[in-house]
Structures are given as C-alpha cells and as structure tokens.
Amino acid sequence: MADQFPNPTIPARRIKLNVGGKLFETTVSTLHSAGPDSLLAALSNRPSLPGSNPIFIDRDPEIFSVLLSLLRCNRLPSSTLRRFSIQELAEEALYYGVESRLRSASLPSPLRGIDAAIVDTIRPASDAVPSTFSAGEDGSLWIAHGGQISIYDSYLSYTAAVRTHLDDITSICRVWPEIAAVGSESNSGLHIYDLSSGRYTGSVHWTDQDDPRIFKARVSAIANSPDSVFVSFDCPHRENSVLVIDKSTLQVSLELTRQSGSAAKKTAPGKLTWLPDTGLIIGSAVTSGAFGFSGYIRIWDPRSKEVVWETNEPGSGRSSRFGDSFADVDVNTDDSILFKICSKSGDLAMADIRKLGDDPWVYMEDTNPSLKETSYGGNDVHLHCYKRQVFVGKDGGLEVWSRQKGLYETVHLTRGISDSENQRPEVSFKRNYVDQVVDAERGMIKRIEGGGERLFVSRDNVEGIEVWESSNHSGIIPVSP
C-alpha cells in the first residue's frame, strides 16, 4: 500500500519538473509518496546532474498542480471541483499513477442522514425521467430510462449508455459488478446484460408446459445473493411465482412459491430481500384501493421451500394497529430487523426477524413535540434501510431514523402492552428531517437507494436522480447494536 504522506527516511532532495511548460519544484519524498509503482516515483529516481534541465512532462500543468497538492497534504484544494471535472482529474491521476490517492480524497464523508444534503442531480442525456436505478457499493450508479441504461462510475462521471432490446426497464439488479439483471412491465422475462461491453448475455423465462396460464410472465422484483438470483414473476392471468436462478448457468434451480388470484395476499411480491446471515428470502406485496392499503410479508427458506413466517394486513383485528396497514416494507440486513411504515398514521414499526411472532411490531414515536407528524398526506410513502439508518420518503419529504446510543429519551417504543414489557432501553432511534421545504416541493419521492457513502433519490415525473451526501464536519458517529 502506498504511503499516504512523504516518507521522512527519504532525503528531502529537491527536484524540478517542467509540466506543460510550467516549472514545479518539490522534494523526492513527496513524489515517492505517490507509491513505488507510480510514474512520479520513477521520475524521482532518475539521476540528476548539476546544470541539467528539469524533467519535462507533456501534460496539463494546472491539473498537475492539484495532484501535487494532494501528495503534499492528502487532500484536494477546496476550489478543485469548481475548476475541473472528476473525469479530468481521474484521467491525469491515472497517467501519473496516483488514482488510488485521488479516489480516497474524493470519497464523500460517511453517510449520516441527520446532516445529508443534495450535492448533485444526475441527468441522462436523453429520456431523462428515470424508470428505476441501481446504486453500487462503491457509490456508482446505473440509471434506467426508456429501454437503455446510463452508467456512472464511483466519481459519478458518465461512462457509457447501453441500449437494451426492451421498450422500458422497470426492475434492475446488480448480479455482478458489471452484470445487470433487468425486467420490464411491458416485456416478459428476466434479461442479463454485460454493461462493461454492452452485450446481451441471455434471458430467463417462467414457463410451464403443463399450465397454459403461465405465459408472458413479467418481472416485478429481483434480489441477489452470491450464488443465486431471486425473481418475482407475474402473468397476465394473475399467476405469479418466485424463482431461484443459478447465477453460474442462468437456469432455474427452484420454484420457491407459486400462487394464483387477485386477492391482496395472493399478489406477486413487489420487493424481495435476501438475508445473508440466514439465507432466508423476504418478500412483500402492497396494494391500494378505495378502502386503503393491504398486503403481506412472507419469509421463505429456500432450502426447504417452507414459509417460516407470514403476516397479512389488514389482519384479524388482534393487531395493536388494526386498520393502519403498512404501505411499504424494508429490511435492515445488517441487524436482521424488519421495518414497515403505516399507511394512515405514517408511523414506523420494527420487528426483530430472529424473534417473530403473532404481533412482533414495536412502534416508534417521537417524544419531541416539534417533530410530531403534521405534513403526511397519506398519498405515497417509500422505505429504505441503509447503513443502520431508515430513510422514509413521505409524499415529497425525506426523513431518517438513526440508531443512537445514550439518547433513550428521544423515541418511545410502544407495543400496546404493559409498561414493564415495553421497557427496551437497549433500542433507541432518533428521527430527523433530512430535507428542507424546498426539497420536498420537487415532487413525490418514487425510489430511495443507498450506495457507497451516498443516498440516491428519484421523484415521480422529475428528470434525473438526486445525490445526497453528508457534510464533512458532522460529529455524529453511527452506533452498532
């Protein structure tokens, strides 16, 4: 690993460089800090004779000045991103062999919803209203719009666009770093594309020769594990299933479930999540109509094909929140915690997946009167768990619930049970509004997804994807359970 600062054991001998006609003077130790395999370290090892001309490099001197400052101070000058694009910096850093140093210095601060703000909006060149998107672990972004996918690297620099054979893309999942699994509400099948080359590699369809109702099955949800892809399929005649696809062969290895009918508890899962700790699959479906929201949450064990836990809302009436059905569900896979957001009250509830029962929900309420719910109109709500935080989009507003330590007075957890049972001081969350009023007025939130140290947000019929990052000066520290 390259040294992050000049090595004091290397003599502080001065060296002159002529970059694009501009003279620079620095020390050998500063150039050596670029790493032993870098061009700058190699140049610094050249013998220097008295009276010899400075080493000439035919590159941009202004960007070299920025990279030299990075080697000296391990940070970029504050004006850098106003003067140069990340792509320009990355190309020069690659030439000199200091791309890892630039990447480290360019990374956003650890994502904390409590102090996040919009730093950019990524807009594809054409068909800029996104249908869906996928964020990578490195903070990169794939945006589906129309039948194509625009690709942005970890610097959020545009790299390429891949045109698919689909009319539109409504589901996208990263099954490998450069391989996308995509689905469409207007085209049947799951389709695999290599985005590094733009090449179509294959498709998987749900078929059954013994059942003529199984045809033109469209994808409604995709989840990924190291060995398998889990796909929810939905047919025009209300037949639906969840299939397990072997990633090495792109063949169906298991039909996890099959159901039929238009009832809420028989609809296709609109969300799938794979739990790495247990290998379980969590699926949820939500429908809404004149009488409100209804849906189910179901947990399968792929090894036995058994449903290990299930809940339907509205329930039997024994639930402490009967009549306030969930509008969305998501999973904190780090801690195996299931979250739901209520459709009428907008309240957030959690359940420990390891201790599920008939009514496992714990509801979180603010004791701070200034944060009491006043603006939720019950129109649209989205839930996303990321880095032990729960991001909630209500209509156009965005809020975050962060797990805290030593802030037990902030949130009261209720179950509709006795006070003695309700005392759980080991669990505490703090709620904050992430956005400002002007942010919420941009439009209804359609999708939220985290990637790297960024949060990405799309809005209904609004061009582009919002990029949210945290301030460099935040003092809040995430707390592990």
TrEMBL record:
Pfam entry (one): Beta_prop_At2g24240
Domain Potassium channel tetramerisation-type BTB: 15-101
CDD domains in the cross-refs: BTB_POZ_KCTD-like (cd18316)
Residue stretches making up the At2g24240-like C-terminal beta-propeller domain: 132-404
InterPro entries in the record: BACURD1-3, Beta_prop_At2g24240, Quino_amine_DH_bsu, SKP1/BTB/POZ_sf, T1-type_BTB, WD40/YVTN_repeat-like_dom_sf
Associated pathway: Protein modification; protein ubiquitination
SUPFAM superfamilies reported for this sequence: POZ domain, YVTN repeat-like/Quinoprotein amine dehydrogenase
Gene3D superfamilies in alphabetical order: Potassium Channel Kv1.1, Chain A, YVTN repeat-like/Quinoprotein amine dehydrogenase
Name the UniProt record assigns to this protein: BTB/POZ domain-containing protein
